[in-house]
Amino acid sequence: MNHLAHFFLAAESGELLVGGFLGDFVKGQLKGERCTAIENGIRLHRAIDAYTDKHEITRISQKRYGKRFRRFSSIMTDVIFDHFLAVRWREYHSDELYTFSNNTFSTLSQNREHLPPNAIKAFERMQCSNVLLKYRDPEFVDRTFRYLSGRLRRDNPLAEAYEQFLVNRDELDSDFIEFFPELTHFTNEWIANSNGH
């Protein structure tokens, strides 16, 4: 899953949310360099990614794209599922997406001292561009694919991936509707039962 889903799934705790954001920036073994709750958020981020990657429904989604997109299918699905979450936001959350976005960036801002420089730069860019709200716009999916294509070092077809989204949109939406409640249940169980260990 991408940023919006990770924020949504970790939002019951500010520390989990901060850790969930750091999951894209902190690699390797966690050694207690941050408070336990933030490190648990990083562990939760990793658990969500592992659950998503192995799930039968997301694997079905990833097979919907053309063969040349196969190596990038998980990236594509992460972005597309965040789009569907934004579009269907009020089915899953009591607050408006605008309110949730403001609260999320406020939490990150209040915890800047826990963010490394590259995470601060990403957070400020996301806040400035209102990226969580833009996920509702299908054209933002295209812009995201093009941005990611430029970020990858090796040649890739992501700049042309938007057509795969359009062609498979209805099926992918159905996949998301089936998958997301299962992911939410998994996350809630993880938080309730594990303390991240």
Brief description of this entry?
With 197 residues, this protein is mainly alpha-helical. The protein has helices at residues 3-10, 14-22, 36-54, 56-62, 73-87, 89-92, 97-110, 117-128, 131-134, 138-151, 162-167, 169-194. Helix 1 (3-10) runs antiparallel to helix 2 (14-22) and helix 4 (56-62) packs antiparallel against helix 12 (169-194).
What does this structure look like?
The chain is mainly α and 197 residues long. The chain is 70% helix and 0% strand. It has helices spanning 3-10, 14-22, 36-54, 56-62, 73-87, 89-92, 97-110, 117-128, 131-134, 138-151, 162-167, 169-194. Helix 4 (56-62) packs antiparallel against helix 12. The protein is globular and about 45 Å long. It starts with a helix and ends with a helix. It is built from 12 helices and no strands.
Give structural attributes.
70% helix; 0% strand; mainly alpha; 197 residues; 12 helices
